[in-house]
Amino acid sequence: MPYLQLSTPCSEAEYPRFERALEDVGALAVTLQDAHLDQPDEQAIFEPGVGELPLWQQMTLTALFDAATDGLLLLAALEAFDPALDWSQARFERIEDQAWERAWLDSFQPMRFGTRTWIVPWNHPLPAEAGADAAIVRLDPGLAFGSGTHPTTALCLRWLDELASAGGLQGKAVLDFGCGSGILALAALKLGAASASGIDNDPQAITATADNAERNGVEIATFLPQDAPAGRYPVVVANILASALDALAETLAARTAPGGRLAMSGILAGQEEALLVRFAPWFDALQVAREDDWVRLDGIRNQAAVAA
């Protein structure tokens, strides 16, 4: 069924009032988008923590209404609900229905990372150039973060591929801290890891990881942080925000076995120096890799006493 779509600019400070007004007059859905797509502020909303709602300072707010809604009457109702709000830049458009949260999958194509790793949509044929030894991950990311299209995920996938090529993954247990869709744990298993576990604070990510593991014919033990059993792993990957990496430094150190390898991303260029200092007490041979505006750090757990 078609819809009437209303779009209007909105500031971070005004967003709650705009949202209340739209919901009061019957909006079926309200979505947000960075107003400055030519210079996006990815840090503002990239993978927020539980209970957090980080927003861009300037946004484009879009609301959907029943197709039979009269736009002029709708504007009058909005102005009456909160007369101080400015609806003068609101624009209307008639649009057809679609599976909104999955529409982007139409452009999701097989991608190669490193020598052997391929991320392939679950319903897409294998690419002809994938060799017999290719590590194929069939993925349906759904609403959880992690499809390989973001530089942070790509950086971690290439690190796993390189580690496998050097013989550092075979037979190892891997922890994917902040597993999202489970893409990194899946890649590790396909590249030769003996087992993989995933931890995420988003229940939706736990579900997505479990679904993708079943689709790939493998098992990934998944946990919310408070439910995760104690344990140390020879390989740990953490694709989360720099602020979360800083807060979780001792936890990640404790989760990495002495002599084990840790790779971290979700780090904007310019944030790596502080993290190098933060992780130096526990990790040696720390290295920096960069793609676009994003950074990956990786190092080797030293023999210092495991952090509490």
What does this structure look like?
- With 308 residues, the protein is α/β, with parallel strands linked by helices.
- It has two domains: 3-97, ACT domain (Alpha-Beta Plaits, 2-Layer Sandwich); 104-301, Vaccinia Virus protein VP39 (Rossmann fold, 3-Layer(aba) Sandwich).
- It contains eight helices and 14 strands.
- The chain has helices at residues 15-24, 71-81, 151-165, 183-190, 203-215, 242-247, 249-255, 272-279; strands at 3-11, 29-34, 58-66, 91-95, 111-113, 117-121, 135-139, 173-177, 195-199, 221-223, 233-239, 256-268, 283-291, 294-301.
- Strands 10-9-8-11-12-14-13 form a seven-stranded mixed sheet, sandwiched between helices.
- Helix 3 (151-165) runs parallel beside helix 4.
- Its main location: cytoplasm.
- Its EC number is 2.1.1.-.
- InterPro entries: Ribosomal_L11_MeTrfase_PrmA, Ribosomal_PrmA_MeTrfase, SAM-dependent_MTases_sf.
- Keywords: Cytoplasm, Methyltransferase, Ribonucleoprotein, Ribosomal protein, S-adenosyl-L-methionine, Transferase.
Keywords:
14 strands; cytoplasm; 7-stranded mixed beta sheet; Alpha-Beta Plaits; Rossmann fold; 2 domains; 308 residues; single chain; alpha/beta; 4-stranded antiparallel beta sheet
Write the layout of secondary structure elements.
Layout: E1 3-11, H1 15-24, E2 29-34, E3 58-66, H2 71-81, E4 91-95, E5 111-113, E6 117-121, E7 135-139, H3 151-165, E8 173-177, H4 183-190, E9 195-199, H5 203-215, E10 221-223, E11 233-239, H6 242-247, H7 249-255, E12 256-268, H8 272-279, E13 283-291, E14 294-301
